[in-house]
Amino acid sequence: MTVFALVDCNNFYASCEKLFNPELKDKPVVVLSNNDGCVVARSAEVKALGIPMGVPWFKIQREAKHYGIVAYSSNYALYADMSNRVVEILSGFSPNIEVYSIDESFLDLSGFERQGYAEYGMEIRQRIADWLGLAVCVGIGPTKTLAKLANHCAKKQLAGENGVCDFTRLTTADLTCLFERIPINEIWGVGRQLTAKLEAMGIKTVRQLRDADSRMIRDRFSVVLERTIQELRGISCMDLEEVTPDRQQIISSRSFGTLIYDLADLEEAVASYTARAAEKLRQQDSLAGAVQVMIRTNVFKPEVPQYQKAVTVPLPEATADTRMLSCWTRRVLKRIYRAGYGYHKAGIALLDIRPRANQQFGLFVADDHARSRNDRLMGTLDAINGRYGRGALRLAAEGVEKPWQMRRGNLSPRYTTEWDGVAKVRAG
Amino acid sequence: MPEVAVIEGPGIFIPFPDAPKRPLPLDEVRISAGFPSPAADYEDNRLDINDYLVRNPVSTFFFSVEGDSMQGAEIFAGDILVVDKSIRPCHGQIVVAFVDGQRLVKRLYRRNGRVALLAENPLYLPLEIREDQELLVWGVVIGKFKRFGA
Predict the structure, then answer these.
(1) Which residues pair with B141 in a beta bridge?
(2) DSSP assignment of A332-394, as one string?
(3) A126 at the B interface (CB within 8 A)?
(4) Which of B21, B59, B69, B146 is catalytic?
(5) Average pLDDT of the residues in A43-47
């Protein structure tokens, strides 16, 4: 029998902030999205106050003041490093692991039966608590869908104990009883729209969906939902996706801290996004065959003049060279830019991505010698930035002052990824 | 050599159109013309300061020091501490601890019901942890390093 575990970090971003800052102990903490827009993570204290996920920060100013909620800008460098550490620890518990998101991983536990899955889950939980100071919940089940549901039960304390819930240990009757109390929108892959449609048919609980006619579901919905039903019944239909497939497109886009009117400022932003995307492209050893540039005004302010445009152009030769790519994104930007608008967001996408190994050389473009020199230059660029921090070496086109940069009013230090960010301890 | 050429008529050789390529690994093999290095069999990895200071990289974090209360333990302002969270803190170890909203570096005292954080400088009093006070021992200090401005 296959057995999966889903390990999920509790209140991950907020927990990372609390980990290094003793002043945040027992305080309500939220983490805000880019440009400090919405609440994207909440500490347990904030959840207890009933503040919902995704709410715009400006809308809860009054509660924030009243309860003393501390808001942080997203410190992705910190979260990514802590996430990598969690994954590294998990890799010691199973040879087969799927990193599902920054705070969730699936583990294949098949074959760890003798030790007892729940005990194994406890050990995982304890190790991550001891080594990293982070709390996780572990859900265990014979399918990925059930492991995810078990995780939900562990987190909400519907079943299991000490943050570990093992469905393989429950009897069928117990499971049925439990599933009767869980609404379908808690099932992995059942979103808001699907929930509404299923509820209209009278299917409201996990138990009802599990026991629904799977043929009928396939006909009226999709094979995907039929597969979910199979998984709820304990028939594993989804394997671990151990290797993240290379991305087919790389998008780098962001809202600006303030409205941007000048082409020159937009050019800097676009050059900077291009550089970041190109770096990701080289990381997966691929080339892009086309680029897209998008700009738009603030759609949330209908009273000001609106304009938006996105244009894609194919490149004469696929490349991963930051200079080539930013030359093209800049050309496209110049073509779509219209003066007189206040731009709120810009973005670029690298498209038509293919492995470098399959490179086809253009007839009228750089010769082999120049190409290998360019590759070396980009390798050096990445190596220097890897060593001295992102953006240490960059194209002049990316600008120095970056007036368009994101608003990140309260960003915590990069405690674990930058020497200047290392936390101070007092010997006093 | 049927895959390299087809014979068309007497004495006429035409390259076989679909002949598989046989790449020769010329770049891979470095042939030295001189005497082979006598050290080739003794090559070792160069010393890495990480190996020396860090035992368990995944649970190791760095903190920088402010203040002079740990001088006696050779911990000075500006030093960077190597802190391993995977080590179980014991009596007598130097630890990073969170108390009353502060991050401290002290020597942990835990004997006979007394819990305290001790300084290594006669100018500083021990910090006694009362029953109602919460002490979080964050991690154990296993080393330190410093860079000079030279």
Answers:
(1) B83
(2) HHHHH--TT--EEEEEEEEEEEEEGGG----SSS--HHHHHHHHHHHHHHHHHHHHH-TTSS-
(3) no
(4) B69
(5) 96
User: At how many degrees (to 10) do helices A322-336 and A368-388 cross?
Assistant: 90
Amino acid at B62: F
**Is A354 a domain residue?**
yes
Q: Sort out which chain B residues have CB atoms less than 8 A from A130's CB and list them.
A: 59, 85-86, 88
Contact state of A22 with B99 under an 8 Å Cβ cutoff: yes
Cβ B67–A428 below 8 Å, yes or no?
yes
Mean pLDDT of B8-35: 55
Selected catalytic residue, list B86, B106, B144, B146: B106
pLDDT at position B74 over 90: yes
**Token pair in block for residue B115:** 């819990």
User: Which residue on chain A is closest to B58 by alpha carbon?
Assistant: A85
- Does A93 contact chain B (CB < 8 Å)? no
Active site annotation includes B64: no
**Total tally of structural domains belonging to chain A:** 1
What digits encode the pLDDT tens for the residues A212-260?
999 999 999 999 999 999 999 999 998 887 655 566 788 888 888 788 8
Inter-chain touch A423–B103, beta carbons under 8 Å: yes
The rounded distance, in Å, linking the Cα atoms of A275 and B113 is 59
Domains and CATH numbers, chain B: 56-145 (2.10.109.10)
Nearest in space to A326 (alpha carbons), one of A377, A276, A390: A276
Structural domain harbouring A281? 250-398
Q: To the nearest whole number, what is the mean pLDDT of chain A?
A: 89
- pLDDT tens digits, one per residue of A258-315: 888 889 889 999 999 999 999 999 988 889 988 989 999 887 777 888 888 888 888 8
| Block residue for tokens 């990193």 | A99
Nearest to B87 by CA among A130, A241, A74: A130
B98 touches chain A (CB under 8 A): yes
> Which among B63, B102, B119 has CB closest to A422?
B63
Per-residue confidence (pLDDT) for residue B32, from 0 to 100: 66
Test A427 with B65 for CB contact under 8 angstroms.
yes
Q: Is the pTM of this model over 0.90?
A: no
Question: Domain with A307 in it: what CATH number?
Answer: 3.30.1490.100
- Reduce the DSSP state of residue A133 to 3 states and report it: coil
Chain A residues with CB under 8 Å of B86 CB are: 130-131
Comparing C-alpha atoms, which of A84, A140, A146 is closest to residue A112? A140
Is residue A340 less than 8 Å (CB to CB) from chain B? no
Using a CB-CB cut-off of 8 Å, the residues of chain B touching A425 are 63-66, 81, 96, 103-105
3-state DSSP call for residue A417? coil
Kindly report the nearest CA distance between residue A426 and chain B, in angstroms: 5
> Which of B56, B102, B138 is facing A426, going by the closest CB pair?
B102
Residue A11: pLDDT band with limits 50, 70, 90: very high
ipTM over 0.85: no
Q: Looking at the domain assignment, is residue A143 inside a domain? A: no
